């Protein structure tokens, strides 16, 4: 019996779209009502989560879609998963929700076993954790950790703050508020908060109108596909970008304390980084004393056929910090060097220091991914789906440009000739019962759950072939 059948014996067998447009009339009515008190303009449709099951999401009009977007890549196991419902009904969950503890000051006796379940799923080389509230928060917290670590190295780990530091920091001035930078990459997306916004460089709408730090953006490699036929060109592209990274580290107007990278840029267009590039960044960060942060918010928790995408690169020594959120339903960063724990309490701190209710769900997700070997399933299904897409590419080469994601589970994307054609394809797919997302200006990206199987891939490819023929 397949994993999906075990979880969802009554999962729909096919999509059903009853309305002539998406969103349908009931969704439109409910979204108009919602819009009076909440910004509902980005909504695809009004979802009915009570009726959604497994890999299918249902809307207010009763339309049932095969979901290959999964709440912007944040549903790991499928809708209404029985194991997560079981975890949600646990005594630990009740305590976490009703008496939400301020974990820094009053940690619950449940906290250690909750964190141990998450740490069993930590990236290779990482054995410690700090928790947050969202992907953007995880990255902001990682920046704080990196800055404190960087300054501690300069000051001396056992040295106290000087009186000058204590006075100047209250004026937002040096040396207490040092001028330090985080290097990120063009087309990156690391969040919409202030420091994370300064490292985000995907779309203007993500960061317009709020102040930003003057931090550098290097170029992310832009590969030619298929990869196996373009080894030399892609290695040259890696080397070109690595030279830019090192130049920025050594020449920027203020010290670069940290570097952050997505192993696959998601919002920026599903751009992949090679093993060589990710390892070479490790070499550069060690050479120049820069903290290496890998942002696994969207790529983590099995979606690429491994628990964590950067594990495909086997980076040695392990990176310093790995941030997570989305499919883990929790947030934070993993680390291994105890010197990333600040020298004094209350430095990495807030009221809740994360969300124990979400950590309980994260632990349950991790357990299921391990018990059901879902990363391997994702790799298998991804290979199957990629083969189907290659066949479509041979039939419609202009509609499947730069097909990428081979060997990376279901983390698959391709480009259309124009944004208008990409948007038309996504619209057509919804009317055919498949909820699919885009990224950047031209790309279609697939982000199904880890319980997505070959039968779902067949349904999607059938709908896709009809939609492509129409645009």
From TrEMBL:
Leading EC class: transferase
Bilayer-crossing regions: none
Keywords assigned by UniProt, alphabetized: Aminotransferase, Pyridoxal phosphate, Transferase
Enzyme Commission code: 2.6.1.19
GO molecular function ontology, one term from the record: 4-aminobutyrate:2-oxoglutarate transaminase activity
Keyword Transferase attributed: yes
Cofactor: pyridoxal 5'-phosphate
BP GO annotations: gamma-aminobutyric acid catabolic process
Catalytic function, reaction form: 4-aminobutanoate + 2-oxoglutarate = succinate semialdehyde + L-glutamate
One GO CC annotation: mitochondrion
PANTHER family cross-referenced by the UniProt entry: 4-AMINOBUTYRATE AMINOTRANSFERASE, MITOCHONDRIAL, AMINOTRANSFERASE
Family: Belongs to the class-III pyridoxal-phosphate-dependent aminotransferase family.
Protein name: 4-aminobutyrate aminotransferase
């Amino acid at each position: 019996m397949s994993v999906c059948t075990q979880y969802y014996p009554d999962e729909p067998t096919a999509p059903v779209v009853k309305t002539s447009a998406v969103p349908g009339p009931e969704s439109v009515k409910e979204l108009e009502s919602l819009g009076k008190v909440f910004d509902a303009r980005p909504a695809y449709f009004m979802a009915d989560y009570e009726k959604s099951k497994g890999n299918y999401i249902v809307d207010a009009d009763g339309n049932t879609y095969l979901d290959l977007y999964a709440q912007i890549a944040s549903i790991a196991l499928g809708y209404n998963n029985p194991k997560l419902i079981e975890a949600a009904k646990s005594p630990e969950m009740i305590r976490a929700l009703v008496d939400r503890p301020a974990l820094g000051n009053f940690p619950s006796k449940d906290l250690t076993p909750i964190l141990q379940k998450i740490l069993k799923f930590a990236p290779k080389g990482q054995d410690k954790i700090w928790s947050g509230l969202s992907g953007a928060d995880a990255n902001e917290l990682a920046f704080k950790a990196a800055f404190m670590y960087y300054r501690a190295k300069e000051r001396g780990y056992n040295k106290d703050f000087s009186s000058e530091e204590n006075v100047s920091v209250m004026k937002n001035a040096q040396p207490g508020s040092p001028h330090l930078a985080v290097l990120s990459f063009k087309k990156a997306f690391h969040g919409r908060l202030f420091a994370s916004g300064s490292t985000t460089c995907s779309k203007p709408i993500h960061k317009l109108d709020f102040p930003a730090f003057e931090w550098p953006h290097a170029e992310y490699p832009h590969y030619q596909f298929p990869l196996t036929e373009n080894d030399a060109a892609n290695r040259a592209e890696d080397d070109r970008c690595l030279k830019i990274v090192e130049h920025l580290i050594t020449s920027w107007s203020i010290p670069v304390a940290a570097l952050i990278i997505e192993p696959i840029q998601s919002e920026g267009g599903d751009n992949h980084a090679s093993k060589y590039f990710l390892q070479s960044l490790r070499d550069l960060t060690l050479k120049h004393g820069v903290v290496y942060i890998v942002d696994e918010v969207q790529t983590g928790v099995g979606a690429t056929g491994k628990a964590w995408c950067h594990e495909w690169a086997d980076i040695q020594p392990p990176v310093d910090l790995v941030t997570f959120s989305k499919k883990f339903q929790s947030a934070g960063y993993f680390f291994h060097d105890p010197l990333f724990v600040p020298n004094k309490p209350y430095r990495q701190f807030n009221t809740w220091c994360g969300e124990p209710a979400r950590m309980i769900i994260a632990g349950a997700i991790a357990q299921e991914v391990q018990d059901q070997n879902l990363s391997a399933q994702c790799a298998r299904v991804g290979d199957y789906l990629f083969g189907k897409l290659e066949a479509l590419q041979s039939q419609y080469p202009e509609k499947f440009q730069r097909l990428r994601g081979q060997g990376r589970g279901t983390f698959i994307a391709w480009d259309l000739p124009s944004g208008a054609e990409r948007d038309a394809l996504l619209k057509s797919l919804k009317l055919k019962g498949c909820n699919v997302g885009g990224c950047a200006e031209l790309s279609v990206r697939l982000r199904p759950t880890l319980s997505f199987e070959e039968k779902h891939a067949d349904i999607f490819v059938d709908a896709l072939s009809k939609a492509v023929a129409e645009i």
